[in-house]
Amino acid sequence: MKKRVVILFLCMTMVLSMGACGTDSDKKASTQQGTQETASEVFDGPHSAQMKLDLSKLVTKLADYKGIDVTISGNYDVTDDQVEQNLMSLLPYYGITGVEVKDRDTVQKDDYVKVDYTGYLDGDAFDGGSATDTMIDVANNCDATQKTNYIDGFSDGLVGAKVGDEVSSDVTFPENYQSSDLAGKKTTFKFKIKGIYKPVTMDTLTDDMVADAFTEQKITTKKDLVAYVRQVLEKQAANSKSQASISAVEDDLLDKCKVTIPDEYLDARLQEYQHEFEADNCNDTQTLEQYAKNNNTTVDDMKKQWKELMIKQIKIEFIFGRIAEKENITISDDDFKSFVDYLVSSGNSQMADENAVYKYYGGGNKEDGKKTLRQLYVVNQAISYVVEKANITVKPDTQTTESSEN
């Protein structure tokens, strides 16, 4: 049962996203008082959770759902090259940017150089124009750690300099530069050369470097770091494959089954969705109309899109809810509590505890929210059941493979 619960946690987002609240892309985290007050208001329209549904009549055609054949596209096998690429891109964020060069003291064009620098405008140092112990990728004129680009010509004066030298470069900021004080202005940057480095490679990465950088992760060797990165990538690939399989199974049954949605139920769900959407995105200073205008759309267009998504979502819930009935799929109190605890730990300030979770999904009504979540959880158990029995063919995504090779 534990395995099933883990699978459900991965796919619950797809059903919950249109269950009673906005999708992740719709939501905006906010600490504004107006938003918090709006979010706590109780939805006063008809509650869908209180409506009795006979799925045996609403799902007028339930297609065969055991052992269905579906095909998904994607590349879900993690290669050694992917592990190495991700590992190398990870190192700079943990302070591993280069290996110090000690057999020469002159900067070459493909070096990393550690410098202190200060920018001057008309002879005076300007705000934001200085840094210490910065590692510069000379060849690419960018920060070796963040890979952010510098102004053209910024690092030109470094090639040929020696460790301990002080050199300068004259650069002109672009006319459209974000700071009007610097836009189009000619400036001078003075550098103090503090060390020469070569980019780290898998061959030059050492156990000591790994142990120093990844202390908190308790990773002490290069071999362990490779295993850690591979594990992360494999989990991501498995999650992607799981989501693709869920979508394929849902689409297959949506195409083959027939569902009737009562008008009053659809209206209630749409009203509940709009209530939660406004709670998440609107406040005393921004109405729904203003939100729409700010996002280059209209309320009518938003409602049209919501209705299309909601119809699809409800059909999924009805189909898999009916499957749950036929297969006697139920939910234990322990599993449900684990899921609610998972939502509490999600970081959403409006779901800080168990009661808040229920109110969030019940439009302020705790019992409605609890009933809604239990229904959606059972739906997801049914989805997991069908996915596990499906014959899933994986078709390699050649476009993704070609782009990754390039």
TrEMBL record:
Residues 1-22 form the signal peptide. The keyword Isomerase applies. Pfam families: FKBP_C (PF00254), Trigger_C (PF05698). It catalyses: [protein]-peptidylproline (omega=180) = [protein]-peptidylproline (omega=0). Keywords: Cell cycle, Cell division, Isomerase, Rotamase, Signal. It is an enzyme of class 5 (isomerase). One of its GO terms (biological process) is protein folding. Its EC number is 5.2.1.8. Residues 110-199 form the PPIase FKBP-type domain. One of its GO terms (molecular function) is peptidyl-prolyl cis-trans isomerase activity. GO terms for cellular component: cytoplasm. It is found in: Cytoplasm. InterPro entries: PPIase_dom_sf (IPR046357), PPIase_FKBP_dom (IPR001179), Trig_fac (IPR005215), Trigger_fac_C (IPR008880), Trigger_fac_C_sf (IPR037041), Trigger_fact/SurA_dom_sf (IPR027304). It comes from the Bacteria. This is peptidylprolyl isomerase.
